[in-house]
Amino acid sequence: MNSTSPVGGSVDARPRDIRVLLVEDDAADAVLVTELFADVGEISHVVHVQSLAEAEPRLREADCVLLDMNLPDAVGLGALARLLAVEGHPAVVVLTGDVDETRGRAAVAAGAEDYLIKGRVDGQLLTRAVQYAVERRHAERLATQLHQARVHEQENRRLGRGLLPTPLLQDATVAVTTRYEPGRRQLLLGGDFYDTIETDDGTLHVIIGDVSGHGPDEAAVGVSLRIAWRTLILAGVPAGHVLPVLDRVLVTERHDATLFTTVAMVSVSADRRHADLYLAGHPPPLLIDGTTPAPLPDHALGVPLGVQVGTTWAAVDVPLPPDWALLLYTDGLIEARNAAGELLWTDGLLNLLSPTLAEAGRDWQTRPDTVLDSLLTKVDALAPIRGDDRALALLTSASTSQGAAAATISAHPQDGPERRTLRHRYAPDPGACGQVRRDVRSFLARWQVDEDTVEDALLVVSELASNAVDHARTPFGLTATLTPGNLLVEVTDGSPAEPRLQPFDARAERGRGLQMVQGLSSGWSFRREGAGKTVSADVTVAAMNLDP
Question: Which PROSITE patterns does this entry report, sorted A to Z (predicted)?
Answer without folding.
Answer: RESPONSE_REGULATORY
